[in-house]
Amino acid sequence: MEHETQERGDALVVILAGEVDLEHSPTAREVLLAAVSHKRKVLVDLAGVEYIDSSGVASLVEAYKIAKNQGQGFALVAVNPAALRVLRLARLDRVFSIFDKLEEAL
Amino acid sequence: MESPDPSAQASEDYREAFELLAKMTQSFATAMDVKTTLDAALASMTELLEADEGSLWLVEPESGEVVCAASVGLHPIDGLRLPPGQGIVGRSVRECACQKVLDVAEDPHFSSLADERSGVVTRSLICSPMAFGDEVLGAVEMVNKRSGDGCFSERDAHLLKVLAYSAGLGIANTRLASAKAENERVRHEMELAAEIQRGLLPEARPSPFPVYGINIPARTVSGDFFDIELLERGRIAFCLGDVSGKGMNAALLMAKTASLYRCLVKSIEKPGELLEQLNAEIFETSTRGMFVTMAAGVYDPATGIASIANAGHEPPLHATVCGQFATIAAEAPPLGILEDCDFLQVDLPLEGGSLILCSDGVTEALLDDGSYLGSDGLQNLARRFSDLPLAERIEAIARETGKLRLRDDLTLLGVSDAERLIESDPAMRLCFPASADQLSAVRKAVGECAGAIGFAGEAACDVVAAVDEACQNIIRHAYGEEGMGEIELEIDRDGDHLVILLRDFAPPIDPSRVKPRELSDLRPGGLGTFLMKELMDSVEFIEPAPGCGNLLRMTKRIPGE
Known about the structure:
The structure holds two protein chains of two kinds. Chain A is an alpha/beta fold. In chain A, 39% of the residues lie in helices and 34% in strands.
């Protein structure tokens, strides 16, 4: 798994790529929690995520809940079809705000 | 005419005596028939000492009576018995001392029993004990000197003493020889018994055969046994038993139990029911608190399931393909102790692994430091030889155990499920450490396998994700803080379905606690099981045998079939 956090205007964009599985989800969790700690809008780019498992989804959920409690914006953008299927199965596609393109979310 | 020179006469007497001594010693040394030898020796002594009568007496160890074993004279008195201590003979035996009586009328100890029987009137006699070490074996008595004044001289008494001791030595020698012959006979009979016992064990079948046993008795005969019997539909019944105690009584009970087993297994196929019947039979007739420990089972090569029941025996060992071991504990007391007893049956899927049964002679073999080999030691041996085919593996374990100090019979029996899997050839089998860094490679392998079976695109991804989630559950929850263990994964097709089996070796989890989480509850975690159930058609925990970890089975219909 690869990750990168960028500043885009007033938002932080966390780019995850590769496989967010049990081995790498602890890293993904750290990156996401670090991003939401800045009390800014956080957008998570999942375009390069070919695989995400329940532990990866769980770290998204955890970051989402913190952001929501602090009144920050939190959205997923450009979700890879494989990851989208898992989110749909988990009925989380109705919980997260999901945008096709980063520009739409900014 | 010159009177004979007394010293020349004396040396002539001794020469004759020495010749007789030499002859007697030689004949005793080669004698197998004591009676003939005693008769001949007594006749020579009687002649040399110029006595009317001679008799040789032996002490009967049980009663202490002395019995006439040989006699020379007008009327033989062979078989005559004197109560302990009675008569001059009795006194000679009791005191282990030579007796010389010049006139029996003046010796109150004299017993007239022999005279009454022989019709001879005893006037004078000499009697010498025969001894061997501390044991007085009997005595030799000479009655009425024919020459001279009719009395025995001091020299006669000396001669008799020497001759009697030589005869004693001869008798002791022949007794040892016959005891040795008796030992030999018993040993021969033990060997015949051992041969019959070996006949009760099954003959090895041409390999590869999924069941193999070996028995090495500690003595000639054995209290251990095993059996392997073919049942209908290719199933194989097997058992391994150990009779309490050692030696002939254990061997006889072993023969009885083995015969009963072979008879009953033809009609009772369920191991638990079979042990119940055996128990009832043995309880009815066993004596002296003897009992039998026994593990019995039936292996079905079509399914790989071994059904096992255990009557107080060493727990059978299940060796998995991953090299993990689990013991199947004894659930019931040994046979022959309780009149009515249920014997629980466990159905254990061997899943390509094997089952090892042994007698306590194996686990209680002594290592150099005086400790037992134990179940751990047996596991180490089984692991060391796990690459060998079954028969060679069992032989190798027995050989290594045989190098230790053995205190009991050594019996081993193995059941291997490896052949079945070679024949059935599942689409995929993987064995890997339960660790997160393994999962990427596992997903790749599962993806390829699902593709080969007929899954493509999203459907293939679903199978991969379900296996991944199941592995995560094992890593995070089953093993958890306990550290790393192994995961066995098998994928196969069953008709139009894909079947996934996942096994771990962690302490059993309660399947009812593995529930999908409530989706409205937005907590991290708890999502995996829910996803598995969404991704697959069926997800179920199969109740494993005790101590055998957890087994998860998932199925999904193959697209387009």
